[in-house]
Here is the input.
Amino acid sequence: MRRPLMLATILAITAIFWLFIRTPESEETTAAANPLSAPQPGFAATDAVLIQTGDNGEPLYTLHATRISQPETGEPIEVTDPDFTDQVDADNRWSVHALRGQLPPAADHVELYGNVNARGDRTGVAPLLLHTEQLGFDMPTQIINTSDPVTADWDKAHLNSVGLQANLKTHDIILPASVHGHIAP
Here is the structure.
């Protein structure tokens, strides 16, 4: 009778000792055990098209890309070989192509990088062509900008500048520094 009581006492003491000396779980172990606190997986798509529509259901912005990915939910969205189209209004359309781009999760701004070519088409007016290495586009305000060197060609005008800010709604363009160019008669 003494032997089972002694065995039970030893097991109880061992269990209590083990509970006191064990190390707390690491954050990684806790996150793995609780999927709601673990980083959520993102997405990846090839030959993808993202379309933002207006209240009338018509496309406002269209983004075509050979690859769109977001490593984790809440992280920036990466795009490869993006073609971005913005239908500002019925008579005003912009098309932009670059080697790569990045959008924040809210997707209200896009940064385009590498051999960025933009074309602005308005009814009855010669197209405006822009070339730079980086171009930011704020979609709610319809403003594009860069601090990199930019080339602008419009009808018979050829201009080079360092930096550019353009309001696509009002058609105002600011070339802030080192502007050089030629306007043919």
Q: What stands out?
A: The longest helix spans residues 2-21. The chain has a mean pLDDT of 80. DSSP finds two helices and twelve strands in the chain.
